[in-house]
Amino acid sequence: MIENAAKLPEMEPVIVEHKELKLIGIPCIGLNDMGDKYRHAKEALLSSAKHLPHIVNPQIHYGLWPHGPSQSHPDTHVYILCMEVESYDGIPEWFLRLTLPAQRCVVVANKDGDFEAASQAVEAYLREKGLQTSAGERAYTICERYSYEGEGFARYSLPLVD
């Protein structure tokens, strides 16, 4: 098990455990032009990080999905790109603030950003090991992580059920 998702091996499923995460983020709404929306959010987070207090690592961003009926419609689908902070003190009000409870997930890194290949590896590992996942009562879950000075893209499963 890797705590806080240090360096991840390429296309090898691992179980990652996060303690509670305090995140600030920028929502990207609607699937139309999602790539451009992600790039704008990434640039905004990277450029503002040098001026913000309490950023844990500006080179690591988490992608979150809310859970709810709006996610099934292309125009209201939401993706939130986030950075971890130690505290919300001094963070401008316009950032979305989310605190995620501790969680364990199956994670697969893919340097090429191949969402489908990484997702298939996550699903195969869950089936092979007989692991169950659930969003449970969580309003938001991590769907992916980007390490801009590390392995790149990593796909997350829903949290593992104990």
Quick structural gist:
This protein has 162 residues and is of the alpha+beta class. It is built from two helices and nine strands; from the N terminus they run βββαββββαββ.
What's the helix and strand layout?
Elements: E1 2-3, E2 14-18, E3 21-29, H1 34-49, E4 60-66, E5 78-84, E6 96-100, E7 103-110, H2 115-129, E8 140-147, E9 152-156
Parallel strand pairs: 1-2
Antiparallel strand pairs: 2-7, 3-5, 3-6, 4-5, 4-8, 7-9, 8-9
Organism: Paenibacillus ehimensis
InterPro entries: AraC_E-bd, Cass2, Reg_factor_effector_dom_sf
Pfam family, one: Cass2
What is the subunit organization of this protein? single chain
User: What value does the Rg take, in angstroms?
Assistant: 15 Å
Largest sheet strand order: 1-2-7-9-8-4-5-3-6
Helix content: 10-25%
- How would you spell out the order of helices and strands? EEEHEEEEHEE
Content-based structural category: alpha+beta
Distance between the termini: 15 Å
Helical run tally = 2
Please count the beta strands (DSSP E, at least 2 residues each): 9
Strand content: 25-35%
